[in-house]
Design a protein that fits this description.
Rossmann fold; seven-stranded parallel sheet
């Protein structure tokens, strides 16, 4: 198949879903025409080196352009996210490409890319061409904003989420009926989107069945060759948290963990250290390196909390830490940090929110706890029991091998493309 894959940011190992979908589709022999936006020349180089592909279309977009897009959207009813990555030059070139390239499907990622999907559906309607447009929503953003508006540690993030929430609910519910297929990473997000669709379009049985068939789950995978265990000696009392550290859900999770769980750990195990690994840490996250509880606990030797900032490769940190933590308080979709740690053979301690979309077995593949005290107890139990850590290392790796292989995900995706094409063919003949 030939697929036009539109992603409103350069796909890379941090933006793991488009990066690995494109890579897996190419490995299966499909031709993928990548259309994307970049903010720095380094991002373009990263695209070419990481995927080994010259993008079919790549247009620059500045922060000022994105802010202007948001300002223009403010007076209306659309969410700011839907306009943030709009670049008219890319849209015009996509229209030209559609006329000349004999593609079998159009794949557009995220709420930030939805305007390109809508633009192309209108363009195809005008030209009379039959071509499936698949919108990969990834997550239910409305649900993410609902939780962020209540639980983000940042007042600014809470205010933005509350402002965006009603706009996003209306827009997501409306947009779901505009495409041949809509993809999400989990059944949880699918259920939330279906609720939004029925609020917008009514709940008649026929409409419900049609929408249920249209919204499909396409889970995230793990690059099992890249994220793999090693023979490196692990640091016996070191925890690791990974993720983009400007993302509000990660900031809230790690800030709460340090201030509520680390004192419990330090009181029981003064030598426990935490690595916070990920790009663009906010000032709030940076300050955690110097944070100590008021009661004086935490006088650990050396540097008990280390904020690395951007690293070339997160695998050495995952492979050397004794335990990976994912104390997520809110979020949407599948938590890649959990899957990547398990793939590296690192025992994971997490929260129910982080594994709501993952079918791993608590107590067998990973440990799940909710309160600060229970998180500390779970971590201490692992630090005290090397055999238990080994069991979780092995079981966690087996779980991702069985359930989150990108090759299997790409096979499912191509079958969804085929279904959408077949459906259009039936319509055109009737």
């Amino acid at each position: 198949m030939k697929i036009l894959f539109i992603v409103p940011y350069v796909p890379n190992r941090i933006r793991t879903r488009p990066f690995n979908l494109i890579k897996a589709l190419k490995e299966q022999g499909h031709q993928v025409l990548v259309a994307t936006l970049w903010t720095t020349p380094e991002e373009l180089e990263e695209l070419q080196c990481g995927l080994g592909v010259e993008p079919a279309l790549a247009e620059p977009i500045s922060v000022y352009r994105s802010l202007w897009n948001c300002l223009r959207t403010l007076p209306g009813k659309s969410p700011l996210q839907s306009s943030y990555s709009w670049q008219p030059k890319l849209a015009a070139k996509l229209g030209e490409l559609i006329q000349t390239a004999d593609v079998d499907a159009v794949h557009v990622e995220h709420l930030r890319g939805v305007r390109y999907a809508l633009y192309l559906t209108r363009f195809l309607s005008i030209t009379g061409r039959q071509l499936p447009v698949i919108w990969d929503s990834v997550d239910c953003i409305s649900q993410l904003f609902a939780r962020a508006g209540k639980e983000s540690s940042s007042l600014a993030s809470r205010m933005i989420a509350r402002f965006e929430l009603p706009r996003t609910r209306r827009y997501e519910g409306w947009a779901l009926g505009r495409f041949n297929r809509v993809l999400v990473t989990s059944q949880v997000d699918r259920a939330h989107l279906l609720d939004l669709a029925f609020l917008q379009n009514g709940s008649a049985n026929q409409a419900r069945r049609k929408m249920e068939a249209r919204i499909r789950v396409l889970p995230n995978g793990v690059d099992l060759d890249y994220f793999s265990p090693s023979e490196d000696q692990r640091e016996p009392s070191t925890l690791v948290f990974t993720g983009k550290m400007s993302y509000h859900a990660n900031v809230a999770a790690v800030t709460s963990f340090v201030k509520e769980v680390m004192p419990e750990l330090w009181a029981a195990r003064p030598g426990v250290c935490l690595w916070i690994v990920g790009k663009d840490p906010t000032p709030e996250v940076r300050e955690l390196e110097n944070w100590r509880p008021a009661n004086g606990n935490g006088n650990a030797p050396g540097k008990p909390i280390c904020v690395t900032g951007t690293v070339d490769d997160i695998r050495p940190f995952l492979r050397k830490a004794a335990i990976a933590i994912a104390p997520i308080q809110y979020g949407a979709g599948i938590q890649n940090k959990v899957l990547e740690a398990m793939a590296c053979g690192t025992p994971v301690v997490t929260t129910p929110q982080a594994v709501a979309a993952i079918t791993a077995r608590p107590g067998q593949d990973l440990l799940v706890a909710e309160s600060s005290r229970d998180l500390a107890a779970a971590i201490i139990s692992l630090l005290d029991d090397p055999a238990k850590r080994v069991r979780l290392q092995q079981s966690g790796r087996c779980f991702v091998e069985r359930n989150h292989n990108w090759r299997a995900v790409a096979t499912l995706l191509t079958s969804i493309y085929g279904e959408a094409n077949a459906e259009l063919s039936v319509r055109s003949r009737s």
